[in-house]
Amino acid sequence: MSFSTIEWLVAQRRGVTEAAARYGFDLSVSDAADKPTKQVLDLEDFVTKQMDLIIISTYYADAIAPAVKEINEAGIPVVVLSSSLSGDADWTCRLAADNLATARSAGEYYVKHLPKGANVVHIEGKPGSMVNQERTKGWLEVVKGSGLNLVGHAVANYERSQALQAMEDFLQGNPKIDAAYCNNDDMALGVAQAARERGRLEGMMITGYDGIQPEVMRAIHQGDIHGTWQYPPMGVEGVEAAAAILSGKKVPKEVLFPSPMINKENVLDYWNPDTNEMNPLKSLLKI
Fold first, then answer.
1. What are phi and psi of 204, to 5 degrees?
2. Which residues contact 253 (CB under 8 A, 6 or more apart)?
3. 3-class DSSP string for 162-228
4. N or C: which end of the chain has fewer CB within 10 A?
């Protein structure tokens, strides 16, 4: 893992750990603590230890490419969770959602639900993440030239506190902001907090991605956040793919999962307001 400080990655790690225990695997977990150079060293260490399979979750596709090449040359199978690898780094199976298509549909949603001339800000995550790049690219492809005004852009690295600060700056510099497109839910929560504290939350359309946190579900239920596109953490599915590979089964090079929108109309399908818990996620992998 590149790091595990955001809720989506916490859920991913939990899924890997629990599923590996069910399969009886001897699991080693490395966390690079948000340092690309450490993730390279972690991967090289796994090669030295002759791991039977390596699951990679990275936000530094370019930086770790040489280490992945070493894994490839060692003949160790690789399962990639979410963000793709770059260059000629190869993998056995990659699990992801179709981020580009989902981002385009998000752009269409913004164009449909906002009037022409609406002022919109964009808060993106880590620039080195391929998922972040796709969530940005697909949305911009649709929104640019649509009549919506992009009045602010910030990189908040998927962190709530950074998004809150960025939104405070945008609110101070813009008397009217109608919507905020955020590349994950933690940042959407930060944006909503900033708008609430300035008394400007009402009527603002804020969306995120991931859809796995009870806090976000409650915010959607209350109307503070307009919606999110669910992105399964894929930890359980990653181990299931690993088990299939290690047992000699042929697995697809890439598996794309659906990324449905969660809003006030269907939030109760995903979350229980009485317990404030997410409804159990079932494995989406069919191989």
1. -90, 130
2. 91, 92, 93, 94
3. HHHHHHHHHHHHCCCCCEEEECCHHHHHHHHHHHHHCCCCCCCEEEEEECCCHHHHHHHHHCCCCEE
4. C
Angstrom distance (rounded) from CA 196 to CA 78: 44
Length of the chain measured in residues:
287
Query: What is the pLDDT at residue 170?
Result: 98
88: which 2 tokens? 């000629």
Distances in whole angstroms, Cα of residue 203 to Cα of each of 92, 107, 172, 176: 46, 19, 18, 11
Q: What distance separates the 2 farthest-apart alpha carbons in the chain?
A: 60
Task: Say how far apart CA 90 and CA 93 lie, in whole Å.
Answer: 9
Tell me the per-residue pLDDT of 207-229, one tens digit each, with 9 for 90 and over. Answer: 999 999 999 999 999 999 999 99
271: left (phi over 0), alpha (psi -120 to 50) or beta: beta
Residue 281 has pLDDT above 80, yes or no: no
Q: 3-class secondary structure for 48-110?
A: HCCCCCEEECCCCHHHHHHHHHHHHHHCCCEEEECCCCCCCCCCCEEEEECHHHHHHHHHHHH
- Cβ proximity of 39 and 2 under 8 Å: yes
Three-state DSSP state, 15: helix
Model pLDDT for residues 105-152, shown as the tens digit of each residue? 999 999 999 999 999 999 999 998 888 999 999 999 999 999 999 999
